[in-house]
Amino acid sequence: MDDYRFLADNPVEEYHKSDIGFIACVILLCGLGIFALFFCSQNFAQRMFNSPFYFVKRQLICVAVGLAGFFLFASLRMTVIRKLLPFIVIGTFILCLFTFIPGISIERNGARRWLKMPLAFTLQPSEFVKFAVVLFLANLFDKQDRLSDSEEKSVLPSVIGLSVFSFLVFLQKDFSTCVFIFSIGLIMFFESGAKLTWFPPALLLIIPLCILMVMQEPYRIERIIAFLRPDEGMHTYNYQSIAAKRAISSGGFWGTGIGSGLVWINSIPEVQADYIFAGWTEAMGLFGVIVYLVLLGIFAWRGYRSSFYCMNRFASFVSFGCVTMIIMQSLINCAVVCGALPATGIPLPFFSLGGSSIIVTLMMCGFVVNASRCNTDEDADEFVNDIRGDEFKIHSVDGVRVYE
């Protein structure tokens, strides 16, 4: 019989408190992100919109929406989330298709990645693809793990779904996000126990395909050239990278402060977006970088701990994908700003200006909080009975799921 309860209400003896350490990291990172956005964007906002708080106000509105998503995914039962999964995946797919419709979508620099929203806000469907792909793959991995007949198991549906969403993002001329989403999908395949022998043939196919994708657009080639020749193109293709490096080096250990000491961030175009880490480093110095990396490390530790200790397999897969998505995105952005990787256009979670990014990030964090409470597999009986038609009892022996 279907259970239509929406909120988790485990018995008292099975109740597990949310991971307070993880929640504290989310709050601190979000607060530091708003703080960094203010002092990095105030001059540009004053000059363009006659208000130093213009970008901060818009970001706070998006944070409020994101917090609503945070509490929603932190509160819903896993069975309800799985029942909503088809609507999430199909809805995200439709949003991606809307980006190709003129009048609904917005074109910037030859790319259509955004949808028009009220009050001059925009929506970037590729950000929601990140969460949808993680949910989609985790659901399929969980189903495959529960099948007893190895002949019934297949990775084909997972590969097709991942490829379709990645290709949709690529068609929006967002190559870096396309590669990033596909890479996270491969990591989730590895974490789910896929055979290592599958990866070499896949790489032999993926690497030439990526090279062809890069060659299709001149600006992608320019980014590779800029990375290989970091001291050239000071006033052209390497201008933003060189300005970011100067901002980072000027910060020293303690930083120049958030007042008149900030000089170089004003020379970085749209520093409030992908290069906000350079502004944070100039203002806070190496000390600020250490604080950020420590918080990110605690975030990863508590997030992965929730994933590995989670007794609900679906929740474990999703929380692993969400934490990996946020951590990898953060490290890639920092590496790009420091010149260790070619420019990608991937934002810095919690810090970069972008409503879609902060909303999806907080939604994923909410799911991880939900997973941190799953010390019992409360949905496993219902799910196994749905796909097998048998009565099972599930309990834990030394942290290992046992089916009887």
Task: Provide an overview of this structure.
- This protein has 404 residues and is mainly alpha-helical.
- The protein has helices at 20-49, 54-75, 78-98, 125-146, 156-171, 175-191, 199-215, 218-228, 239-250, 276-309, 313-338, 355-372, 380-388, and strands spanning 105-108, 111-116, 122-123, 394-397, 400-403.
- A hairpin with a 2-residue loop joins strand 1 and strand 2.
The total count of helices amounts to: 13
Rg, nearest Å: 22 Å
Report strand %. Answer: under 5%
Amount of helix: 55-70%
Largest sheet: 3 strands, antiparallel
Number of strands: 5
- Order of strands across the widest beta sheet? 1-2-3
N-C termini distance:
20 Å
Secondary-structure-based class equals: mainly alpha
What ranges have pLDDT less than 50 throughout 5 or more consecutive residues?
1-5, 9-15, 383-403
Q: In short, what is this structure?
A:
This protein is mainly α and 404 residues long. It is 63% helix and 5% strand. α1 runs antiparallel to α2 (54-75) and α2 (54-75) packs parallel to α12.
Secondary-structure map:
Blueprint: H1 20-49, H2 54-75, H3 78-98, E1 105-108, E2 111-116, E3 122-123, H4 125-146, H5 156-171, H6 175-191, H7 199-215, H8 218-228, H9 239-250, H10 276-309, H11 313-338, H12 355-372, H13 380-388, E4 394-397, E5 400-403
Helix pairs in contact: 1-2, 1-10, 2-12, 3-4, 4-5, 4-6, 4-11, 4-12, 5-6, 6-11, 9-10, 10-11, 10-12, 11-12
